Amino acid sequence: MPDYQPFAHLTAPNVDLYRAVMGEFVRAKRRFVVHLRPEDLELDADLAALTDALGRLKDWGNLRADPDTSRVTSVEDFHRARFLYQLTAAGEAAEQALQTYDEALGRRGALQAVALTDIVTQLRALLELARQEEPDPAKVHLLLRGLVGRFTDLADNAQAFMGSLQRSIDLHDVDVDAFRAYKDQLIDYLERFIKDLVTTGAEIAGLVTEIDDAEPLLVMAAAREAEDAAPGEEQGREEEFERGLALWRERWLGLRQWFVSEPQHPSQAKLLRARARAAIPALLQVVSALNERRAGRSDRSADFRTLARWFAQAPDEATMHRLWRTAFGLSSARHLTVDADTLAEREEQPVAPSTPWYDAPPLLISPQLRKTGSYERRGKPNRIVDRSDQRRILAERAARQAEETELARKRLVTHRPTRLSEVGTLEPAEFSLFLGLLGDALAARGPRQRHVSTATSDGTLEIRLTALDEGFAEIHTPAGTFRGPDHVIEIVDLTAAEPEEWSA
Predict the structure, then answer these.
(1) N or C end: fewer C-beta atoms under 10 angstroms in the chain?
(2) How far is CA 102 from CA 90, 98, 235, in A?
């Protein structure tokens, strides 16, 4: 069972002194100073308190005490307890854990757009090595280590930033002017990162996809790390290699899943973009709430204070009772059901409002009220509305729209490669369908991909799109002119029995 005694000083009464003493030893070790005497500690405390604190820390295992015989000049000095103190392995580990804990709590994180650029640069260099027949293992190892380190910083900082951002959104008691100024800077920051993540993230996804088989590179990195294993049996080195290879595979899979989306599994970059976009309206809602609070909208505490003033200003006790009944409505509940029999019975045997429920006669509640929760008797059902005219109008409209869509489909079918600049003029229905087909093709095209072929969701049309290096296209419609880079497009009707020629 692990020994957690080095953390015992955190719950001791003089925890501040113990933390200060341990901090002195940590700073001394960074200066390569191993041993310290009580008088070497630069703390605002007397020597007796420091000596007692050092002794307690030694008992808990944070420090080790060695006899200090270097300055013995007499027998009395020899018998007097003098010690040199130094950090133990357990004490140093405890301080590292506490430092990590403090940094994690105070960490705000950042959305590192620069890290995205660094990852692109390292992936390009790694891709060049992957294309070589015999890449240099040292270069591969260094590139993979730098890539993983930069990616880890990006992921950790993004997680910390989104956590701190949510805490900022949840703030309520905050200065309005300061928060509004912070809001403007934060929204600009989020918009810039989202833009960089969309563009650079797509390039990273393309580079990761281009490195089809990263296994040889990962094997080189694991083998190079296994060479540094301590001398021993050959089996131990083989186990170290297998452990390192599994770790590198896991890191590469994490990098791929962070930027490359899979079916039913969106990438972490896509989820981060969604969270960053959702944070902007959340910030605006907080600003709206702060503005409403600043405008002096009444809340419950203000209502209670106003009511208290009214009670204090009431001229007599009867007025206070009337104010109480008006404000809180805590009246008698004997009006559950009132009918002619109940009124006649109350006239014959009146019951005072102050009568306790235990002493009052029982109330007669209708069985229908107990069963259905409603006392009213139900009448005849509502008349059925004849909606045949509305259905006929909707059917005619749907048929007309289907006919227009079918005509537009026949108009757009090409059966031969056609430049966008040759399409000419399109009617509104034709242009709407054409714009949807063009959007499907562009969405299916990956980074650096010049040719793409896709089909509509109903499987009736196939779109083939090829990018051109130069030229612009214009398509005229009654609503205006559509302009963009020229492409070669081919639209094929998959349901037609025989192809039909079409020209613009």
Answers:
(1) N
(2) 18, 6, 41
């537009």: which residue's tokens? 408
Residues 206, 448: contact at Cβ < 8 Å?
yes
Q: Which of 13, 77, 25, 95 lies closest to 54, judged by CA?
A: 25
Alpha-carbon gap, residue 144 to 353, rounded angstroms: 84
> Which two three-digit tokens encode residue 276?
């960053």
CA distances from 409 to 75, 485, 490 (A): 109, 23, 13
Q: Which residues pair with 86 in a beta bridge?
A: 64
Contact 488, 466 (CB under 8 A): yes
Separation of alpha carbons 120 and 105, rounded Å: 31
| DSSP alpha helix (H) spans, 260-413 | 268-294, 300-313, 317-328, 340-348, 367-372, 388-412
Question: In terms of DSSP bridges, do strands 451-455 and 83-87 run parallel, antiparallel, or are they unpaired?
Answer: unpaired
Beta carbons of 272 and 162 less than 8 angstroms apart: yes
Let me know how long the chain is.
504
Say whether 241 sits in a helix, a strand or coil.
helix
pLDDT digits (tens, 9 = 90+) for 39-88: 888 888 888 888 889 989 999 999 988 887 666 555 555 555 678 888 89
Q: What is the pTM of this model?
A: 0.40
Tokens 């010049």 appear where? 450
Find out whether 448 and 208 touch, Cβ atoms under 8 Å.
no
Integer Cα distance of 337 and 330 in angstroms: 18
- Angstrom distance (rounded) from CA 328 to CA 472: 73
The residue type of 100 is T
**Interval 170-209: pLDDT, tens:** 554 555 666 666 667 777 777 777 777 778 888 888 888 8
